[in-house]
């Protein structure tokens, strides 16, 4: 049986790196895309823009025209200021337009393999707003609409498309104002790990999730179900 093949954008760090490590350990051929040059023992790393058609096509060439999984992890963190048009343009380009371009270019290869895609979103946008970065919230909310739409486009080709929406995860992606092991805003009391998000991605691209498409999987330790009143009660314990 031929090796399963995956393209992972934002593969050099955080959730992308953890996902690459998980798939490589399971015997997948992993082609990563990232802006940074890193030691990447999990597979082959192409340095470039995750929304660049030439880079995406080069990654597909490494997969010989068949792609079992596309995982879009590349992103710009919410930093602001909220009224910076430059910040808006950058975030929308990286967090929303690049996944669209990756889906557009990869769909024939995904269809050939009856493969699937996972887009990494956030509870910000889909469930929460953002005081400092409306651009980030808008991009991540748009990502959910993109996934639902691509699930419809891909359905005719047996291509599944889903979103993973993490909450507080202990990576260098976003600044943290609370200790990772003392998150009073999370019912489980801690930040998640990149490996925990990668585990959900691993399920969504597996045969066990063969009837799951157009969905959003929240991975946040219960944060979005916690009311402000209950968060205060947890802080007072």
Short recap of the structure:
With 237 residues, the protein is an alpha/beta fold. The protein has helices spanning 14-25, 53-62, 85-113, 123-126, 134-155, 194-204, 228-236, and strands at residues 5-9, 29-34, 44-47, 69-72, 116-120, 160-166, 216-219.
Which descriptor suits the 3D outline? globular
Q: How is the biggest beta sheet arranged?
A: 7 strands, parallel
Total DSSP E strands: 7
Low-confidence sequence ranges: none
Note the gap between the termini.
55 Å
**Beta content:** 5-15%
Q: Give the mean pLDDT.
A: 91
Radius of gyration over all CA atoms, rounded: 17 Å
H/E order of the elements?
Answer: EHEEHEHEHHEHEH
Number of helices: 7
- What is the share of helical residues? 40-55%
Structural class: alpha/beta
Major β-sheet strand ordering:
3-2-1-4-5-6-7
List the helices and strands and how they pair.
Elements: E1 5-9, H1 14-25, E2 29-34, E3 44-47, H2 53-62, E4 69-72, H3 85-113, E5 116-120, H4 123-126, H5 134-155, E6 160-166, H6 194-204, E7 216-219, H7 228-236
Parallel strand pairs: 1-2, 1-4, 2-3, 4-5, 5-6, 6-7
């Amino acid at each position: 049986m031929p090796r399963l093949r995956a393209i992972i954008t934002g593969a050099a760090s955080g959730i992308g790196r953890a996902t690459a490590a998980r798939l490589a350990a399971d015997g997948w051929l992993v082609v990563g895309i990232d802006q940074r040059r890193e030691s990447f023992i999990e597979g082959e790393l192409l340095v470039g823009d995750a929304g660049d058609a030439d880079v995406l096509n080069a990654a597909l060439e490494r997969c010989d025209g068949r792609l079992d999984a596309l995982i879009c992890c590349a992103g710009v963190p919410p930093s602001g200021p909220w009224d910076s048009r430059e910040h808006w343009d950058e975030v929308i380009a990286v967090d929303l337009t690049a996944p669209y371009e990756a889906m557009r270019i990869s769909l024939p290869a995904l269809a050939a393999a009856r493969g699937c895609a996972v887009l990494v979103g956030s509870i910000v946008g889909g469930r929460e707003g953002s005081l400092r970065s409306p651009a980030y919230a808008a991009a991540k909310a748009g990502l959910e609409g993109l996934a639902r739409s691509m699930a419809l486009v891909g359905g005719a080709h047996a291509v599944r498309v889903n979103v993973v929406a993490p909450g507080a995860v202990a990576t260098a992606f976003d600044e943290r104002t609370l200790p990772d092991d003392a998150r009073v805003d999370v019912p489980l009391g801690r930040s998640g790990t990149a490996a925990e998000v990668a585990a959900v991605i691993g399920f969504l691209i597996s045969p066990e999730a063969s009837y799951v498409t157009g969905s959003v999987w929240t991975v946040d330790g219960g944060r979005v179900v916690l009311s402000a009143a209950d968060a205060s009660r947890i802080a007072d314990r």
